Structure formats: C-alpha cells, structure tokens
Amino acid sequence: GGIHLAQGQGITVNYDEAKVGTYTLPDPLRLPDGTAVTTARQWEQQARPDVLNLFKEHVYGQMPAKPAGLRFKIRNENKNALNGLATRKQVTIYFTPAADAPSMEVLLYIPNKVQGPVPAFVGLNFYGNQSIHPDKGILLPTRWVNNNPKGVVNNKATEASRGLQASRWPVEELMKQGFALVTAYYGDLEPDHVDGWKTGIRTTLNDELKIKEDEWGAIGAWAWGLSRIMDYLEKDKSINAGQVALTGHSRIGKAALWAAANDNRFALVISNDSGEGGAALARRNYGETIAQINRSFPHWFNPTYKNYNQAPEKMPVDQHMLLALMAPRPLYVNSALEDQWADPRGEFLSALQAEPVYQLYQKKGLGVTEMPPVEKPVGETIGYHIRNGKHDINAYDWQQHIAFAQKHFKKKAKP
Ligand code: GTR
Predict the structure, then answer these.
(1) N or C: lower Cβ tally within 10 Å for the chain?
(2) Mutate which of 4, 7, 251, 276 for ligand 1 pocket (most atoms within 8 A of beta carbon)
(3) Would the CB of 276 count as within 6 Å of ligand 1?
C-alpha cells in the first residue's frame, strides 16, 4: 500500500487487504419487518421504494421532480460537423420560464451515416463542453470552471481549453459505431467547490423546486441535471430515448448512478471508477472512506451522511444496494489497477452483491465470484472489468462500454 498518502490528510488510509475489517452488508432482499423478498413484483412494490428513500435520507438527499416551466432552445445546429461525420447541436435547457432562468448547455453529436433514431451515450463533463473535443464550433462555458493549466485561467475557460479532456471522449469512434454523444458541463448545475451551492441550482431553484439547499448535495444537483437532459432527449426525434446509456467517471460516475437510481428512463448505466459514494462498498476500510470524502468534499452529500464518518456499519444501506436499484437494466462497473483510492475490489464486490436483485428478473450478473484478471471483462447483465493504469476513462474502457451497449441494445456496428 502507501500510495495516495497525500489524499489521506491526516486520516489513516488503508491499502492492506488484511486490514479491511469484517463487515455485514444489509440485505436488499429483506423488508424492514424481516420478510424475504422473493419476486420482482415484491422488490418493485415494497423493497425498492424503501431502499431508494434510505439513500435519499442517509446519503444523497432529496431528488426534486422536473420543474413545470422547463423549456428548451436549440442554439445552433451544424449538419456538417467533424468533416461530415456528425450533426452537432447545442441546446439550452432553461429550468424556469423566466428570461434569466437558470439553465444548462447541452452538446449533441449525432452520427450522419446512420438511420435514426439512434442510441446515445450521455454523460456530464468536468471542464465545459469545449473540453471534450477540439471542434471550434463548441460554445465555451461562461460560468465558473475549475482552474487547469491547459486553458482554464481564473476559473474561466479560454480557447486553449478546447479538447482539454478529448482523450476521455471518443467522439469519432461513437459516430462510427452509430451512437450519439450527449454531454453537458456539471458546473452548470453546481460549481464543484464548497461554496458552489450559492450560485448553483440548489440556491437558484429553491422556490421552483420547493427544496432547501441542505436537503440535497452537489451530487444530487448533478444527477438532477442528467434527468433534465433526458427530458430533452425524449423530445429530440434523432435520438432513441429508449436506448440511452448513462456514463460517468469518478464523482460524475457517482452522480450517474444516483441519477439512474431515480430515473428509470436511463436504459443502461456505466460506473467508471466511481469509488467511494459510487459503486464501492462503504463498509470496506480500503482507500477512500466516508470520513475522507466528507472532509474533502463536504458539499457532495446530504448532511446526514456525515453521521457515518466513523461508523459506516450504522448506515441502513451500502453501495451494492445502489447498484441493485439499476435492476433489471444493464449495468457496467469498471475499475483501474492504479486507482486503489477507489477500491477496485470494493467496486467488484458491490456489483457481485447486487446480483440477487437481478436474479429476481432471471438476469445473469457477473458470472464469476472472484475478481477477474486485468483486462478480462466479465458479465452478462452486470458487466465488470479492471484495466491497467490510472484513475481515468480511456479508449480501453470505452471499447468495453460500447460493446456492452451494442450487445444490450442489439444494435450492430453500422459504419
Ligand atoms: C477524488 C475523490 C474521489 C473521486 C475523484 C474524482 O479526489 O476523492 O471520490 O470523486 O476525486 O472525481 O476524480
């Protein structure tokens, strides 16, 4: 062990499997009165609503409904983007009818050579839509962005930030495989810093959503934004809204899981290195812990989550139950070997422990009970891989995600 010590900031970080400790996971198939859940119907009508509420109450906070005044504006459309490979659309989602309504900017690339409506990958980005591709037609964000030596200066995105994270977004490959790509900047919902809530939707939509800022957290706000993208996609005739794969890396992977738990319009879900508060089991003392995440990012979760800093075993849920909320939808979880901070084994075990709920639907999970070797993907309706390398989302990860989506959407590659 011993890597990532800087992230420990005084809290001991364990990387020794022998020191993980023993723990008992809560059983998703057990009702509060002790009754065993044995059918999908029982899960959906009795257990599932309860589990979802426990996550609201103890982890992520409330999830407000779609605001009545939601509206969309196509800002521009270019049918000849990426040298003719794609149509690029930029759409503003306004959250209220007011002229100066809080809003988010959505970027879509839709493949030109495929008969629509097409399946889509949807995910938020870390540095603005221009960060996903050098395409000069992408509008720069005007809002607060985390500083980055590659073109974000004084929390403003500059021209130099175009394509800053292009390695994480294989746009051309997705077009060739017949998928649309839909993305938005997570900071449009809430800037990712301790005071971000003051300018984000947790403040600007207090009245509209009838919610106080401390009744949810930043992850909740990001997840809520993902559902608003889904609201738009249901109206866009070029997209097959029944085949939307939701993806997210790391903190955005946590938000993706939470969004899909609340919104079953997302047909397939991908957790890329989402770690603590995402796919990884909280009861395992390995890598990042609840205490650690609440110290570094006090704005991410519900205030109640802090009660478990020293006592994860007291939580009525653990993260395998979040994964179980995806059932029976296809779910893909993946880890990276050098990303021990995210606890790869804890992510794998969590996916494994979600299987009993999938079995209620006669869906097969991982098909293994031990972690597979590096770069040997496993699984049916629940997929998993661990790859070489660092905390990131790269071409290898996307290759597996695309193949997984193709298999489940029964959509062949159509160049
Ligand atoms: C880390 C954090 C992780 C993960 C990661 C990321 O600092 O501790 O939980 O969210 O950031 O988002 O890249």
Answers:
(1) C
(2) 251
(3) yes
Q: Which atom of ligand 1 is nearest to the CA of 277?
A: 9
Over residues 31-69, the pLDDT tens digits come to: 999 999 999 999 999 999 999 999 999 999 999 999 999
Q: Which residue has the tokens 């009660």?
A: 307
* 193 Cα: distance to centroid of ligand 1 (angstroms): 13
Tokens 């002790």 correspond to what residue? 34
Establish whether residue 293 lines the binding site of ligand 1, counting it when its CB lies within 6 angstroms of any ligand atom. yes
Residue 253, ligand 1, Cβ within 6 A:
no
- Helix/strand/coil (H, E, C) string of the chain? CCCCHHHHCCCCCCCCHHHCCCCCCCCCCECCCCCECCCHHHHHHHHHHHHHHHHHHHHHECCCCCCCCCEEEEEEEEEEEHHHCEEEEEEEEECCCCCCCCEEEEEEEEECCCCCCEEEEEEEECCCHHHHCCCCCCCCCCCCCCCECCCEECCEECHHHCCCCHHHCCHHHHHHCCCEEEEEEHHHCCCCCCCHHHCCHHHHCHHHHCCCHHHECHHHHHHHHHHHHHHHHCCCCCEEEEEEEEEEECHHHHHHHHHHHHCCCCCEEEEECCCCCCCCCCCCCCCCCHHHHHHHCCCCCCHHHHHHCCCHHHCCCCHHHHHHCCCCCCEEEEEECCCHHHCHHHHHHHHHHHHHHHHCCCCCCCCCCCCCCCCCCEECCEEEEEECCCCCCCHHHHHHHHHHHHHHHCCCCCC
Please say if 391 is a catalytic residue: yes
ipTM reported for the complex, 2 dp: 0.96
- Say whether 408 is catalytic: no
Q: What is the mean pLDDT of residues 371-378?
A: 98
Candidates 246, 182, 243, 260; CA nearest to 407 is 243
Cβ-based burial of 6 (10 A; exposed 0-12, middle 13-18, buried ≥19): exposed
Identified catalytic residue from 161, 250, 271, 335: 250
pTM across the whole model: 0.97
> Tokens 């006669």 appear where?
362
